[in-house]
Design a protein that fits this description.
With 249 residues, the protein is mostly helical. It has one domain: Heme oxygenase-like (Heme Oxygenase, Chain A, Up-down Bundle). The chain is 70% helix and 0% strand. α2 runs parallel beside α11 and α7 runs antiparallel to α11.
Length: 249
């Protein structure tokens, strides 16, 4: 695709306004500043954990099952397995590490999102979906649909888009971190979370997902392009709504 626009660039350019809505939310600004309310943060942390642990790990496994690992006549590990197995292997391992770390940091700073005593007392608050809010449940279900019925191109598009948005969102939050001078435990936890979600290693992972996606060399106007573009719009829709509503300060 050296002589034409990369498919990922096409999507980011066409949906730049929607992408900005997903990555420049007031919740992110206040998280970077350290001014977000602790109860709002705790509820978001719970939803993010549920999404990553249930949705993310199963999704990477589903994508791995779609990839042929058989050698071709020319290569022992032909594309896409040569690129995608390391990417998906890292993703699954990192999700497990991330969710374990996530809980330990939350507990360290008094943000226990799954405290058994509190959960038991608050069971009456939950509706038919239990502790999942409707966006989290719908987003996980969408991953399961793509993981089961989508093509590998759609699958990697969804992986790249969700990780690109997440990384870009927290890089945006980080631009406000100089204002976070509080010694409050909630704000101390936020400093760790923001640093973790903006590491060069994570940003490099997102770039590898993008490069792999573009190696499919998807032609604009093709059926594959239409399916992937539709998936990109769905991810934008969910990501815009995954952030909790907060009033500007």
């Amino acid at each position: 695709m050296s002589n034409k626009q990369k498919f990922t660039d096409y999507l980011l350019e066409k949906y730049s306004e929607e992408f900005n809505l997903a990555t420049q939310h007031e919740f992110l600004k206040q998280s970077g500043e350290g001014s977000i309310d602790s109860e709002i943060l705790k509820e978001w942390l719970k939803q993010d954990y549920l999404f990553a642990y249930e949705g993310g790990i199963k999704y990477t496994a589903a994508l791995l099952s779609k990839i042929s690992l058989s050698p071709s006549n020319s290569y022992i590990r032909p594309f896409p397995s040569s690129d995608l197995v390391p990417i998906l292997g890292w993703s699954a391992t990192n999700l497990l590490r991330e969710t374990d770390w996530f809980l330990s940091v939350a507990k360290e700073y008094g943000l226990e999102v799954f405290n058994s005593e509190i959960r038991e007392k608050e069971l009456h608050k939950y509706g038919l979906l239990g502790e999942y809010n409707s966006i989290t449940r719908g987003y996980i279900d969408y991953l399961q649909v793509i993981g089961s019925l989508g093509s590998i191109e759609e699958g990697i598009l969804v992986l790249w888009a969700s990780e690109k948005i997440y990384n870009s969102a927290w890089l945006y939050a980080k631009t406000f971190s100089k204002a976070n001078t509080s010694s409050n435990d909630t704000q101390k936890a936020l400093v760790k979370f923001v640093q973790n979600w903006t590491t060069p290693e994570f940003t490099d992972f997102v770039k590898k997902c993008e490069d792999a996606m573009n190696k499919f060399d998807i032609e604009l106007g093709s059926e594959a392009a239409e399916r992937c573009e539709k998936a990109f719009k769905v991810i934008l829709w969910y990501e815009q709504r995954f952030w909790p509503d907060v009033k500007a300060k």
